[in-house]
């Protein structure tokens, strides 16, 4: 058979298989819709409202069973005992009138048992595959106890590290968050929702929650429709495109409307514009909290507003089950609205295969902390770490270093390195840096461990002295500082982002020993550590790195691995700079770098003698680190990018090529970033926007071309007429190691 025939047959076969699969899934989908219709016809209004009611597992099993028997709940959150899950499911399947399975849910945010770095740390890897793998492993572990739905990913854009929940998301950037969110959904949901280890994902929190005023959780937001559409909505649209099964509304009110009562975002945008076919759950009691917001008068009003806005399932506040029957009777809620909500919930239950396989196998082999799970968690921690400073190549640690002082409250804090939202993680399985380093160096290096402080908020400075004494005897100091898990996450916001307790004092005292000082930071957010960075010879920022943080950090410190993480959000020098983000619009008076700063202003200087541009007298022009920043043990040299064309039309695809060389002595990976600026728009446009990125592994000395494809359509934005359009004109483009470097080259889009 000649090759042409062989390939044609191969492709025909592929086509046949994919058509057959398409038909099969269409048929399945048709069958599912028929089943749903048949079921809804049999359901009483009470049973329908039961499906829309999610309760917690905190009741005793008898009370839960009674509710299930009466068909008063469709989903239970926070039950993780497979035996209880099966027992409750059996009641639903065998003792409730219609035998509709319960959907068991849990916040599996960055791991179930094996804990991965916090999502913000994962974002620093700029590696969607790593995020997908982490989510897949989390799903494998969580589904093994019967959990079929997680409330992740959180894809709220946030530019405010005071907000404790910054830890749970992928940072400040719309494009990075869109890519990472989609990867995470793919990981949780697997190839098909009805896979044995697939769990439904939930895109949350819809929408704007990351922009809460002052970074105070649950607060108000004031985002214009244009800002919502250009910055905050795209990750959610990407989630719909990735097939996410569910959405969760956010706690905040935007422009005076709580998300849980916002029909514009839930119906007009999510359903009508994006065609979302899954279901929407409220956040915890966010339906009844509309009363506290002053948006609803009472439970009945809150239920009416949430149901009519398009919230299909109510999490825990129970107003639907209590009030919606009367609301339907009084014609304030249409029964067809209820039917649509129930249809969307049942669709996901069918797609998850719950009607056919409602139970969890309790005799399957335990997958928790499996070797490959731990290996992936370690790799994730390696790629999440950012080398912020490395003077005189202090790192990696050289073989002439024979005595090391390990200090700081995070060096051996198994719980604290796991980070927020680790309901099911166990600190007993955590591998801390202290233990991992001892294991790695064996007898080659003498380790003196003196924590100096017992925990991150420790204000007792008397224990600093022994740590300094230990440091004075060493060739090198490794100081592990940061924040405990409890200091970030939901409701854990901070007005001050300096190191807590006496940690800063500890660093100063260590610096005074004159010994080389390497500071390793484990935290849930960027901290304002300008001073401590100045005092350190090298700084590795690891966020909360999870179960395998210790071995990952040890390998990085000794150069068995090379840091490759880049800041997933701007690191401010001072809290007062917040919100600091790279993708801001320009002002009419951008900062002029020759401006005089606070300490150089002459006494009694004239009011207009300082240049009248946009900057802080006391914090200058720059953040501590820009978005996308991170060093390596090697160096990379970027060539000048070349473009496939400098004049393009809307339907064209721009190809950008750049030569990248590893000019140092270590094999390493560089995260190459492509930014674009639309120079003149019908509205003001960001000074730069990330449009592509790529992790590029290169051996020492190796050189290669990196190439990006950028469809011009992706330069569209919501313009002055609120139309999503590419506007012809000039664009700047950078290919660079971070959001502040590089020289722009120009291209034009013509109509
Ligand atoms: C409240 C949080 O805002 C949300 O993210 C979480 O999923 C729910 N509680 C359920 O625990």
Report on the structure:
The strands form seven sheets. The protein has a six-stranded mixed beta sheet with strand order 11-16-15-14-12-13, with helices on both faces. The protein has a five-stranded parallel beta sheet with strand order 4-3-2-1-10. The chain is globular. The chain has 751 residues and is α/β, with parallel strands linked by helices. Residues 1-22 have low confidence and may be disordered. Helices cover 31% and strands 17% of the residues. Among the domains are: 1-36; 376-557, Rossmann fold; 586-622, no CATH class; 636-749, Immunoglobulins (Immunoglobulin-like, Sandwich). It binds 1-deoxynojirimycin. The site of 1-deoxynojirimycin has 6 residues, from loops.
Secondary structure elements and their pairing?
Layout lengths: L2 H40 L2 H7 L1 E4 L4 H9 L5 E3 L4 H14 L7 E4 L12 H6 L3 H16 L5 E2 L23 H16 L12 E5 L18 H8 L1 H8 L4 E4 L3 E2 L2 E2 L4 H11 L5 E3 L7 H5 L5 H11 L4 E2 L3 H11 L5 H17 L19 H14 L1 E5 L12 E5 L25 H9 L4 E4 L14 H9 L3 E7 L20 H9 L5 E6 L7 H6 L2 E4 L7 H9 L78 E3 L3 E2 L3 E2 L4 E10 L5 E11 L10 E10 L4 E9 L5 E2 L5 E2 L3 E8 L8 E5 L2
Parallel strand pairs: 1-2, 1-10, 2-3, 3-4, 5-6, 6-9, 12-13, 12-14, 14-15, 15-16, 19-27
Antiparallel strand pairs: 7-8, 11-16, 17-20, 18-20, 20-23, 21-22, 21-26, 24-25, 26-27
Helix pairs in contact: 1-14, 2-13, 2-14, 3-4, 6-7, 6-15, 7-9, 12-13, 15-20, 16-20, 17-18
Bound molecules: 1-deoxynojirimycin.
1-deoxynojirimycin (NOJ) binds next to loops.
Brief write-up:
The protein is of the alpha/beta class and 751 residues long. It binds 1-deoxynojirimycin.
């Amino acid at each position: 058979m000649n090759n042409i025939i062989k390939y044609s047959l191969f492709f025909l076969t592929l086509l046949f298989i994919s058509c057959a699969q398409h038909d099969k899934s269409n048929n399945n989908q048709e069958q599912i819709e028929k089943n749903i219709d048949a079921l809804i016809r049999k359901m009483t209004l009470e049973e329908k409202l039961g499906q829309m009611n999610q309760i917690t597992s905190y009741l005793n099993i008898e009370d839960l069973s009674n509710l299930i028997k009466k068909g008063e709940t469709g989903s239970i959150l926070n039950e993780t005992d497979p035996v209880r899950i099966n027992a409750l499911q059996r009641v639903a399947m065998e003792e409730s009138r219609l035998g509709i399975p319960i959907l068991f849910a849990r916040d599996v945010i960055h791991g179930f048992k094996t804990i991965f770095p916090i999502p913000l740390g994962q974002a620093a890897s700029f590696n969607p595959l790593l995020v997908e793998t982490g989510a897949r492993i989390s799903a494998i572990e969580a589904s093994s106890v019967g959990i079929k739905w997680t409330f992740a990913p959180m894809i709220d854009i946030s530019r405010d590290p005071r907000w404790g929940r910054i830890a749970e998301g992928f940072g400040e950037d719309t494009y990075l968050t869109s890519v990472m969110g989609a990867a995470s959904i793919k990981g949780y949901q697997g190839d098909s929702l009805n896979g044995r280890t697939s769990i439904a994902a939930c895109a949350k929190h819809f929408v704007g929650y990351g922009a809460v005023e002052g970074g105070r959780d649950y607060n108000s937001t004031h985002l214009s429709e244009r800002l919502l559409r250009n910055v905050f909505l795209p990750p959610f649209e990407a989630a719909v495109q990735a097939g996410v099964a569910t959405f969760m509304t956010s706690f905040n009110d935007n422009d005076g409307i709580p998300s849980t009562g916002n029909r514009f975002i839930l119906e007009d945008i999510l359903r009508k514009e994006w065609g979302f076919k899954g279901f929407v759950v409220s956040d915890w009691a966010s339906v009844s909290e509309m009363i506290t917001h002053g948006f609803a008068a009472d439970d009945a009003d809150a239920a009416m507003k949430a149901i009519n806005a398009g919230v299909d399932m109510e999490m825990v506040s129970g107003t639907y089950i209590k009030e919606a029957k009367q609301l339907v009777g009084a014609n304030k809620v249409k029964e067809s609205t209820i039917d649509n909500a129930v249809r969307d919930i049942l669709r996901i239950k069918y797609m998850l295969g719950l009607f056919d396989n409602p139970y969890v196998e309790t005799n399957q082999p335990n997958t928790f902390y499996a070797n490959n799970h731990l290996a992936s968690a370690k790799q994730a921690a390696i790629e999440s770490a950012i080398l912020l400073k490395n003077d005189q190549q202090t790192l990696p640690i050289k073989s002439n270093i024979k005595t090391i002082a390990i200090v700081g409250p995070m060096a051996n804090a198994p719980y604290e390195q796991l980070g927020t939202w680790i309901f099911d993680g166990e600190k007993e399985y955590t591998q801390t840096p202290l233990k991992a380093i001892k294991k790695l160096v064996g007898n080659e290096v003498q380790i003196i461990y003196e924590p100096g402080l017992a925990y991150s908020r420790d204000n007792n400075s008397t224990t600093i002295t022994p740590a300094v004494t230990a440091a004075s005897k060493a060739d090198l100091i490794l100081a592990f500082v940061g924040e405990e898990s409890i200091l970030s996450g939901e409701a854990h916001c901070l007005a001050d982002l300096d190191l807590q307790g006496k940690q800063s004092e500890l660093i100063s005292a260590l610096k005074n020993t004159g010994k080389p000082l390497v500071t390793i930071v484990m935290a849930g957010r960027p901290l304002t550590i300008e001073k401590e960075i100045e005092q350190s010879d090298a700084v590795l920022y690891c966020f909360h790195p999870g179960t395998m943080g210790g071995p990952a950090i040890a390998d990085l410190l000794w150069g068995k691995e090379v840091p490759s993480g880049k800041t997933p959000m701007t690191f401010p020098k001072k809290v007062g700079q917040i919100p600091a983000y790279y993708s801001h619009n320009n002002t009419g008076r951008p900062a002029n770098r020759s401006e005089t700063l606070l300490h150089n202003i002459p006494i009694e200087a004239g009011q207009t003698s300082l240049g009248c541009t946009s900057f802080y007298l006391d914090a200058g022009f720059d953040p501590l680190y820009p978005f996308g920043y991170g060093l390596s043990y090697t160096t990379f040299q970027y060539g000048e990018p070349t473009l496939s064309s400098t004049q393009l039309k809307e339907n064209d695809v721009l190809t950008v090529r750049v030569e990248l060389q590893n000019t140092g002595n270590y094999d390493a990976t560089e995260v190459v970033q492509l930014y674009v600026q639309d120079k003149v728009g019908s509205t003001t446009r960001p000074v730069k926007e990330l449009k592509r990125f790529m992790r590029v592994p290169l051996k020492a000395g190796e050189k290669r071309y990196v190439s990006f494809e950028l469809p011009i359509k992706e330069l569209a934005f919501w313009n002055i007429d609120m139309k999503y359009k590419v506007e012809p004109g000039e664009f700047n483009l950078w290919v660079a190691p971070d959001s502040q470097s590089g020289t722009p080259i120009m291209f034009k889009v013509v109509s």
